[in-house]
Amino acid sequence: MSILVDKNTRVICQGITGKTGLFHSQQCRAYGTPFFGGVTPGKGGTEIDGFPVFDSVDEAVRKTGANCSLIFVPPGGCGDAILEAAAAGITLIVAITEGVPVLDMVRTADVLATKFPKSRLIGPNCPGIITPGIAKIGIMPGYIHKPGPVGLVSKSGTLTYEAAWQLGNVGLGQSTAIGIGGDPIIGTNFIDCLTLFEADPDTEAMLMIGEIGGNAEIKAAEFIQANIKKPVAAFIAGQTAPPGKRMGHAGAIISGGSGTAEEKIAALEAAGVVVSRSPADMGKALVEAIARKK
Amino acid sequence: MKIHEYQGKQLFAKAGVSVPKGIVARTPEEAAAAFTQLGGPIAVVKSQIHAGGRGKGRFKEQPEQPGVKLVKSADEARENAQRMLGNTLVTIQTGPEGKQVNTIYVEGGLNIARELYLAVIVDREAGSPVVIMSSEGGVEIEHVAKVSPEKILKEPFHAGYGLQPYQARRLAYQLGLSGSAVTSAQSFLPKFCRFFVDNDCSMAEVNPLVVTAEGELVALDAKVTFDDNAMFRHKDFAELRDLSEENEFEVRAGNAGLSYVKLDGNIGCLVNGAGLAMSTMDLIKLHGGEPANFLDVGGGAKVDQVTEAFSIILADKNVKAVLVNIFGGIMKCDTIVTALLSAYDTVGFTVPLVVRLEGTNVDIARKMLADSGRKIIAATDLTDAAQKVVATLKA
């Protein structure tokens, strides 16, 4: 078992004829992900490296039975691509695109919530989602993720790879690993993922990786305290970040003195989460979280 | 991207948001002429820098001179401008180094009855823009939030439909406005929210928002920040950018597609990925060092980008050692080492360099580093890397 992605997932790519879209579609296919082609308006009816190309998501869904879309379109078209996928009945939308205007995401998230409640968006500005051994829908290096009992959820890309690597070193694989993205407005948040992991019989523990900016980690801490029985460990990046400066991710900014790593760490620890102070000890923190619950 | 007060007010005016009459001056004579042209008995001479706290700020070269000054004659306007222009204004927000004032805004006086606070930002939790108002204008909002949070009003609005008149009235009544001031708020606030959305702002703040004796709302200040991600559809905003307000190296990094933030420490770092870059700073601090910067080289790590990244890091004279931390995923470690070695030679390293690599093809990459003949210190893991780079400073 796993969350959101399983052997019935059927994937297409929006933006498959772009360099990045094609490269990662090939990588996903090579991993064994059930991949059925892609969409580029105006290039329907053609084929690229064995992938059929369609003019619209609607056409792709009708002809391939796709239920998941991986989005690589440029930032200005990303909100539109997400809504096109939702309108075509895609239930899992994974938006990798970085640099989407915040107000585009405000509008897109609003339409998704009111018109297309059955479609789940992951991202944007994220590495995607992987259920090791089953399907990789994103840009992560597949081989570092081994199948196992840990649910991994993170705002960051390379830090997720680092965490998966450390989990591997302590003999723990992942049920599913999700990068939720570092933007201020995202489709799926920590609480959504924690809820799904708690309900998944094959997930035995969770590792959550947050960062400065906003209060999603604090909300998650409150949620964990009230609803999560499984062991949880966490790491919060940006303990040394100065206030008022955007640290790479659009959402990673301490503003008006709030959103600091310190307050997030304190909230998580108060909720019984084992928080690793060093990025080198994320794997160890999870082992400790499991040991504490025994 | 931030802009100056006078630029913000020009954009407000275009959007129908009331502002006082004002004139830009770049010389003391222009400031005097502006006073005369405004025609009133008083005017305010305002230093234009991107930081707040100007009224209480003072100049390094003119310790008595405030950054904002009420004047009563053209001569007084000229003298104040003389003391401001070309000099360095230090405020609570500039840091001790201050900011050079190159532009003055001369503004007509108003008959002020009340001062309020107004801002619009995107509320992450609500997933929508939100109007924030307070009856306590002219003071720092963070202070109000701490001391009397009940005085802060929040009104989320729909980005597509904008702020509705009933919402504006609700805010006005909560602020204790009455009569023509409510009518004014009902027009002012929706226009201000429309301005925020149409221009892809990430923040628009007016502190103070003035209620005049005549019952009209007027923006006495303007602090506007645009969403960098949306600048592709506002190409005309490029000319509003004032590069002298930005860190030279942050500008260079931006041009090279790198994400860089200068810090005060002495250990430079080059990392792929924003989360890992932040964590690397944390790691250095945890092991007793101080990071000199945040630098995310991105997923591509091309030779010219790595070269530019190294030269930006080394241009900071505080930097006494450099830590490279790369998790090679799709981008293989050996590809990254090729770029690193080429950049190392081009830049001409004079400080110790510690490299920690993990991920795809790491064995090949480590061998390449070991065989390279360069004075590069290889680290086996994150902790080892931090310890080694901190140790070089003590040696």
Overview of the molecule:
The complex is a heterodimer of chains A (294) and B (395). Chain A is α/β, with parallel strands linked by helices and 294 residues long. Chain A has 9 helices and 14 strands. Chain A is globular and about 55 Å long. The model of chain A has no long low-confidence stretch (mean pLDDT 95). In chain B, 35% of the residues lie in helices and 25% in strands. In chain B, the strands form 5 sheets. In chain B, strands 8, 9, 10, 11, 12 and 13 form a 6-stranded antiparallel beta sheet that branches. Chain B has a 4-stranded antiparallel beta sheet with strand order 1-7-2-4, covered by helices on one side. Chain B has 395 residues and is α+β, with helices and mostly antiparallel strands. Chain B is elongated, with a radius of gyration of 26 Å. Classes of the chains: A alpha/beta (294), B alpha+beta (395). Chains A and B meet through helix 4 and helix 5 of A and helix 4, helix 8 and helix 12 of B.
SSE topology sketch:
The complex is a heterodimer of chains A (294) and B (395).
Chain A: E1 11-14, H1 19-31, E2 35-39, E3 47-48, E4 51-54, H2 57-64, E5 68-71, H3 75-87, E6 92-95, H4 102-115, E7 120-122, E8 128-131, E9 135-138, E10 147-154, H5 158-169, E11 174-179, H6 190-199, E12 205-211, H7 216-227, E13 232-237, H8 261-270, E14 274-276, H9 282-293
Parallel strand pairs in A: 1-2, 1-5, 2-4, 5-6, 6-7, 10-11, 10-12, 12-13, 13-14
Antiparallel strand pairs in A: 3-4, 8-9, 8-11
Helix pairs in contact in A: 3-4, 5-9, 6-7, 7-8
Chain B: H1 5-14, E1 22-25, H2 28-38, E2 43-47, E3 58-59, E4 68-71, H3 74-84, E5 88-90, E6 99-100, E7 104-108, E8 112-123, E9 128-134, H4 141-147, E10 152-156, H5 165-174, H6 180-198, E11 201-212, E12 217-219, E13 223-226, H7 248-255, E14 259-262, E15 267-271, H8 274-286, E16 293-296, H9 303-315, E17 321-328, H10 333-347, E18 353-359, H11 362-371, E19 376-379, H12 382-394
